[in-house]
Design goal:
single chain; 415 residues; 63% helix; globular; 0% strand; mainly alpha
């Protein structure tokens, strides 16, 4: 996935001071941002490397009691692959009650015998705090052990920790190093992540063409998010001539393989009339499909249609409901827009404290509009005590991320 700047539209009238809080803007006004690199976990990440009996089990095929009993027998006799299998049975909870502690117990036994996939999954448990207290340092140790033993999935996960700065300072250089190590073995998610780095100039000079090459290679290895990323490159003309029809084709390929974000992006093309006649009903249908499947971008876009009354009757309550579904998954734009609804009293009773709380959540993720809004709330004592130092600190953060109104306030507006 690739990170792109967005231009945000003002949706509220200017007040006497010349500024007000901002909603995040219509999907017509900002570029789609899919800002998380790939992180592959659990059986879905490593299934192709598993013994066939386990690959079939974790794929959801019927598992008979006798087969499970055989795995337990082998695991108790010290078979490391069987110990991995039993741990995955407890982790996935497909045929027994989910139990992360028992998964960890069996994976530790397997890891002690050098089973690298078990090491990787122990790292995952520590990273996510599943059955153990969350501990990024411990996760990093397990990932490193598995990566140094040659498991590309672990090298990719270790790179992801360094990229995000979890448990350590952010280090794009180390992230790239570990992604490259995994990519040497053609691990699709790592190939994609290298594309992400080059697309955004993170730790490397920005190089859209090289990014596109990595995305194509990942896509050739069946990594569906890379198919969607290629669509974005075509839509925005990065590394290739802008081609909306080409973008739609790539998005549709990804959507046909179950990628819900790609489904939402097809809706964006219809909403904006890019390469197709503008069709709000078609946009809504694509958003509804993505949103119903739990995609946060589809939920966000559908909420915007209801907020603005685009192709549907204006319904702030419906907008809020969809924004909350998206926000619960960590979507910063949705968090900001919930704040805006509370700030303006749209579909809810005006509540500056609630608005400030939502703006703050989004700002913590670096959302430029939310950073501006937090600054404005501090300046105007809306839901928080007036604090000009904090106001200008947040304005500076917003300006650094391209918010034009923050730049204007700080005297740094661009022509």
């Amino acid at each position: 996935m690739i990170l792109h700047p967005r231009a945000f539209a003002f949706v509220a009238a200017a007040i006497a001071l010349g500024s007000t809080c901002q909603a995040s803007g219509s999907p017509l006004d900002f570029a789609y941002r899919a800002d998380q690199p790939a992180f592959r976990i659990s059986a879905a990440a490593i299934g192709t490397q598993l013994p066939r009996r386990l690959a079939e089990l974790v794929a959801g095929k019927p598992a008979h009691a006798a087969a499970i009993g055989k795995q337990l027998e082998l695991a108790r006799s010290g078979d490391a692959d069987a110990q991995l299998s039993v741990g995955l049975i407890y982790y996935d909870g497909l045929v027994v009650q989910r139990n992360f502690a028992l998964a960890l117990e069996w994976w530790r036994k397997a890891a002690a015998k050098g089973q690298t996939q078990a090491m990787n999954l122990i790292g995952h448990l520590y990273q996510e705090g599943l059955g153990v207290p969350q501990d990024y340092d411990e996760a990093r140790l397990w990932y490193r052990q598995a990566a140094q033993a040659g498991l590309p999935a672990a090298a990719n996960n270790l790179g992801w920790l360094y990229l995000k700065g979890y448990g350590t300072g952010k280090s794009p250089a180390l992230a790239k190093q570990w992604f490259e190590r995994a990519a040497e073995k053609q691990f699709p998610a790592a190939l994609y992540n290298l594309g992400y780095l080059y697309a955004n100039g993170i730790g490397v000079p920005r190089d859209p063409q090289r990014a596109l090459d990595y995305y194509h290679t990942a896509a050739e290895h069946g990594y569906v998010p890379a198919v969607r990323a290629i669509g974005w490159q075509y839509q925005t003309g990065q590394g290739v001539d802008r081609d909306y029809a080409g973008a739609k084709s790539w998005y549709e390929k990804a959507a046909a393989q179950g990628d819900l974000e790609a489904e939402a992006m097809v809706g964006q093309l219809y909403q904006q009339g890019l390469g197709v006649p503008r069709d709000l009903d078609a946009a809504r249908q694509h958003y509804e499909k993505a949103a119903a499947g739990g995609d946060p971008m589809g939920q966000l876009f559908l909420g915007w249609l209801y907020q603005q009354g685009l192709g549907v009757a204006r319904d702030y309550s419906a907008a809020l409901a969809w924004y909350k579904k998206s926000a619960e998954q960590g979507n910063a734009t949705a968090q900001n827009d919930i704040g805006y609804l509370y700030d303006e009293g749209l579909g809810v009773k005006r509540d500056y404290k609630e608005a400030f709380a939502w703006y703050l959540k989004a700002a913590a993720q670096g959302e430029p509009t939310a950073l501006f809004n937090v600054g404005y709330m501090y300046e105007e004592a809306r839901g928080v005590a007036r604090n000009m130092d904090e106001a200008f600190r947040y304005y500076q953060k917003a300006a650094d991320r391209g918010n034009q109104e923050a730049k204007r306030i700080l005297g740094k507006a661009t022509p």
